[in-house]
Amino acid sequence: MKVSIEVSKVKAREAEASPKPGLDALLPDVFAADCASRGILEHIVSRWGVLVLASLLEGTMRFSALRRRIGGVSEKMLAQTLQTLERDGMVLREAKPVIPPHVEYSLTPLGRQAAHLVWSLAHWSEEHVPQVESARAAYDGRRG
């Protein structure tokens, strides 16, 4: 009886360790053209996605406050970005039942995680402007 239990344990471990047919197709792979993770990544790291997420780390904001905070974003692009991030579960849109309409945007827990990550990258880019500009000048000098 003890032997059969040990054999069962070994078979169970082997089954866990061996790849199952088609399992790779179920695992997210951002390098795969048709993987949903690639679309999510595009939404988060888009020009406006990064700035919306980073802005909302400061707290809940109305549309007009976000637009003022994010220089250069058009009303249309901000609305599209907010809608996309809301659909992805990153942003919460809360419409208050008052007249005139009062809509506030905030981060969901998932959005807060993503915002911290992209804010780190955005902050890094701020800190390294001199090095990047120097590298660009050197590159442009070599190119003629």
TrEMBL record:
PROSITE patterns, per database record: HTH_HXLR
GO MF entries: DNA binding
Entries under SUPFAM superfamilies matching the protein: Winged helix' DNA-binding domain
Keyword Transcription regulation appears in the UniProt entry: yes
Every HTH hxlR-type domain range: 35-133
Keyword hit for DNA-binding: yes
Keywords for this protein: DNA-binding, Transcription, Transcription regulation
Highest taxon, organism lineage: Bacteria
Signal peptide: none
Protein name: Transcriptional regulator
